[in-house]
C-alpha cells in the first residue's frame, strides 16, 4: 500500500470535488479551505495528537473538517448527525475530545449541545468564514498524520447500549479503494453519490477516501431524503451510488422513482445489513445498474466483495468471494474470523471488548455465521446475536427476513425475537407494506413457496417505516424493545 494520504490525493486532483448542499467545490478549494482550518486548529492551541469530535450533518464542511484534522496532526472523532445527547456525552468522555459543530445543529444551538454533553471545549465551524482565515504552512515541527497513524475514531452504529469506539488508520480505509475500483471496473469519469452518514465505515470510504484516491466528483447530502437523492442522481448524472440497504429500498418505494432518469447509474454499492434478493433484483431491473456489496464491518473492513464480473445469481444471493489478503476462516461452527489489512487495531481503551473482538491468535471475530460454496462464494447464514431461540431451536432472523421479503406486498422487513411464555421466543416480522397484508396471507405465500414452517414469522407488525439507527441501518434494538413491550409476559402479583 502506498504512503500517500488524503491530503496528497486532494492536492494533486483537479476539477470538481463535491456537489454538496453548500454548493460545488473544486479540489483546489477543498485543499485550500482544509489547510486554513488546519492552521486555525493549530493556532487555537490543539496539540499534536489531540482529538476533535465533529458533529455535523453531511456536506462539504464535514470533509473539510476531517481533512483539516489530518493535516494538523489531530485525530477526528466522528459522531453521527442524529446522535442523541447520551451518545455524544459518552463519546466525548471516552475520547477526551473537543467538540466541533456549526452554530446550529439540526435546529439546536451547538453551544447548548456542548454544554449539555460536557464538552471541555467547543469550536464553532463556519464554512463562509473559512476563506478569511490565514493560510500558509503549519509551524515548524507540526506534522500531518501519516497513512499508518490512527486518523479516525468512529463508533459502532450500535445495536444495544452505548457505542464502542473503533480505531481506524488511514490505511484501513484506503484498502477499499483498489478493491472497489476493480469490482466495478471503474473508468476515469465516474461520478459518486454517497448518501450515508459520513462518520461510519461505509460513509467514510465511499465519500472521504475512495473518491479522493481517484479524483471522482462526489454528490453529498445533508441528510438522506429519497426524493432529493433521486433528483441529485438525475441532475449530476451519477454513475456510482453508495447507500445502505434501507436507503436503496426507500428509493425504490418513492413515488418519484419511476419518473426519474436514472440511466446514468452503472453501479450501486450497498450493504451494511442484509441485502434482500427481491429488492436488489428489482433495483437492477428498473435502473440497469449492477448492485454490488462489500461484506464486512466497521471493525473488520472489507471481507468479501461482489463484482460486475460475477454471475448475476451469485452477485445477488451471496456476499461474493472472500478477499484473499483478509485471510478469512470459518471457526466454531461457521463463525467468520479474519486477519488482514482492513482490520481495526481494536477498540479504544476497552480491554474487555477487545478480548471478545479478537481471539488468542489476534484474529478478529465478526460474530457472523457463514458458509463457502464450491465456487468460492461466501454466504452469510446468520449472526450469533440475531437468532430467535424457539423451544430450543435456533431460527435465523436473516432467513426469515429473506422469506418474508419475497411477498409482493412487502416493501421492507426486519425480524426480531418476541418473548413467549411457553417457547421462550417467537419470530416477529416488522413490515412496511405496499398493499394489504395479513399474517394468514403471508403464511399462505410462504407455504406456496416451500418455506419451512420453522422460518415463518409468528407475529406481524405493520409500520409506516422501519426505525433507523444513527448509522442508517435498521434499529433492531428499538424493534426488540417494541416486541418486548407488545408481547412480554407480566408475572402475576
List the SSEs and their pairings.
Elements: H1 6-12, E1 16-20, E2 23-26, H2 27-43, E3 51-55, H3 60-71, E4 75-79, H4 85-95, E5 98-101, E6 104-105, E7 108-109, H5 110-116, E8 122-124, H6 127-130, E9 150-155, E10 165-169, H7 170-174, H8 176-183, E11 192-194, H9 201-214, E12 218-220, H10 226-236, E13 240-242, H11 245-253, E14 267-270, H12 277-287, E15 290-297, E16 301-305, H13 312-317, E17 321-322, E18 329-331, E19 335-338, H14 351-357, E20 364-372, E21 378-383, E22 387-390, E23 393-396, H15 397-405, E24 410-420, E25 424-433, H16 439-448, E26 459-462, H17 476-487
Parallel strand pairs: 1-12, 3-4, 3-5, 4-9, 5-8, 11-12, 11-13, 13-14, 14-15, 25-26
Antiparallel strand pairs: 1-2, 6-7, 9-10, 15-16, 16-17, 18-19, 19-20, 20-21, 22-23, 24-25
Helix pairs in contact: 1-2, 2-3, 8-9, 10-11
What would you say this structure looks like, in words?
32% of the residues lie in helices and 25% in strands. It contains 17 helices and 26 strands. The chain folds into two domains: 6-372, ANL, N-terminal domain (Rossmann fold); 386-487, GMP Synthetase, Chain A, domain 3 (2-Layer Sandwich). The strands form six sheets. Strands 2-1-12-11-13-14-15-16-17 form a nine-stranded mixed sheet, sandwiched between helices. Strands 8-5-3-4-9-10 form a six-stranded mixed sheet, sandwiched between helices. It has a four-stranded antiparallel sheet with strand order 18-19-20-21. It has 493 residues and is α/β, with parallel strands linked by helices. The mean pLDDT is 93.
Amino acid at each position: 500500500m502506498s504512503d500517500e494520504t488524503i491530503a496528497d490525493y486532494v492536492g494533486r486532483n483537479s476539477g470538481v470535488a463535491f456537489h454538496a448542499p453548500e454548493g460545488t467545490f473544486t479540489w483546489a478549494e477543498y485543499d485550500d479551505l482544509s489547510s486554513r482550518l488546519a492552521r486555525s486548529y493549530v493556532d487555537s492551541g490543539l496539540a499534536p495528537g489531540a482529538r476533535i469530535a465533529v458533529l455535523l450533518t453531511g456536506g462539504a464542511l464535514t470533509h473539510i473538517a476531517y481533512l483539516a484534522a489530518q493535516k494538523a496532526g489531530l485525530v477526528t472523532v466522528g459522531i453521527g448527525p442524529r446522535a442523541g445527547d447520551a451518545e455524544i456525552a459518552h463519546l466525548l468522555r471516552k475520547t477526551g475530545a473537543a467538540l466541533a459543530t456549526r452554530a446550529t445543529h439540526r435546529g439546536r444551538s451547538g453551544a447548548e449541545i456542548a454544554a449539555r454533553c460536557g464538552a471541555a471545549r467547543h469550536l464553532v465551524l463556519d464554512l463562509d468564514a473559512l476563506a478569511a482565515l490565514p493560510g500558509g504552512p503549519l509551524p515548524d515541527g507540526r506534522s500531518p498524520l501519516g497513512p499508518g497513524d490512527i486518523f479516525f475514531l468512529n463508533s459502532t452504529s450500535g445495536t444495544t447500549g452505548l457505542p464502542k469506539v473503533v480505531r481506524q488508520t488511514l490505511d484501513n480505509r484506503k484498502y477499499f479503494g483498489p478493491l472497489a475500483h476493480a469490482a466495478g471496473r471503474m473508468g476515469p469519469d465516474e461520478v459518486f453519490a454517497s448518501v450515508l452518514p459520513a462518520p461510519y465505515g461505509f460513509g467514510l470510504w465511499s465519500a472521504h477516501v475512495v473518491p479522493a484516491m481517484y479524483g471522482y466528483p462526489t454528490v453529498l447530502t445533508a441528510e438522506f431524503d429519497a426524493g432529493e437523492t433521486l433528483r441529485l442522481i438525475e441532475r449530476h448524472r451519477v454513475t456510482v451510488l453508495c447507500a445502505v440497504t434501507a436507503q436503496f429500498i426507500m428509493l425504490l418505494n418513492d413515488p418519484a422513482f419511476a419518473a426519474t432518469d436514472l440511466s446514468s447509474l452503472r453501479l450501486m454499492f450497498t450493504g451494511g445489513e442484509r441485502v434482500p434478493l427481491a429488492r436488489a433484483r428489482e433495483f437492477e431491473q428498473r435502473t440497469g445498474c449492477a448492485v454490488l456489496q462489500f461484506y464486512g464491518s466497521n471493525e473488520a473492513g472489507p471481507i468479501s466483495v461482489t463484482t460486475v464480473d460475477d454471475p448475476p445469481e451469485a452477485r445477488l444471493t451471496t456476499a461474493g468471494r472472500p478477499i484473499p489478503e483478509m485471510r478469512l476462516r470459518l471457526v466454531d461452527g461457521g463463525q467468520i474470523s479474519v486477519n488482514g489489512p482492513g482490520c481495526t487495531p481494536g477498540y479504544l481503551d476497552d480491554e474487555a471488548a477487545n478480548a471478545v473482538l479478537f481471539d488468542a491468535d489476534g484474529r478478529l471475530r465478526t460474530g457472523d455465521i457463514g458458509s463457502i460454496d464450491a465456487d468460492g462464494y461466501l454466504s452469510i447464514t446468520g449472526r450469533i446475536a440475531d437468532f430467535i431461540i424457539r423451544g430450543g431451536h435456533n431460527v435465523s432472523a436473516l432467513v426469515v427476513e429473506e422469506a418474508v421479503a419475497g411477498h409482493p406486498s412487502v416493501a421492507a422487513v426486519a425480524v426480531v425475537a418476541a418473548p413467549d411464555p411457553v417457547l421462550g421466543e417467537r419470530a416477529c416480522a416488522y413490515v412496511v407494506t405496499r398493499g394489504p397484508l395479513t399474517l394468514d396471507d403471508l403464511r399462505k405465500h410462504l407455504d406456496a413457496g416451500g418455506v419451512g414452517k420453522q422460518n415463518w414469522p409468528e407475529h406481524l407488525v405493520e409500520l409506516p417505516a422501519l426505525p433507523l439507527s444513527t448509522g442508517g441501518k435498521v434499529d433492531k434494538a428499538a424493534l426488540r424493545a417494541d416486541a418486548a413491550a407488545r408481547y412480554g409476559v407480566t408475572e402475576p402479583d
